[in-house]
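thread: overnight batch results

M.L. [08:02]
morning all. the overnight job finished for the chain we discussed friday. pasting input first so we're all looking at the same thing
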Amino acid sequence: MEIKLKLYNSEDLEQIAQLFYDTVYAVNIRDYTEPQVNAWATGNVNLKEWDKSLSEHLTYVALADKLIIGFGDIDSSGYLDRLYVHKDFQGRGVATELCNRLESEIEADHIKVHASITARPFFEKRGYRVIAAQEIERCGVRLKNYIMVKKMWQRSEPSISRRI
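M.L. [08:03]
and the structure it wrote out:
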């Protein structure tokens, strides 16, 4: 399968919103209860707010043929806001491709993400470390996630090489 990445545009929004909803219900349900996924993905995404946010952030969409199979966005501070992969394309490198692109194009000393229980192992394999576990409240329901950070060493101060 060839994965193509493209920058987000507003025409992608409806497919992205559906992908988000389907992924939470098909994938995250293994780590969260039904009331938790119902609070997380209510089916009422504010499309105007999402479009504004996705447009202001660096946002990539992953495609297989013309089907959107994933998306991810990061802001200028290095906060990786959303990363979702279509339920039928899990484990095929889509999230890796999206993260590689987002991490390489943002100029931040570190990348921060609020990772779900489901996503935590993926981010740990990429060098992210858990800073704190937290519980957030959505629609009166508490959901656990993790604040994770990855230091971007290549963007820290230049190394000094010496001859010995």
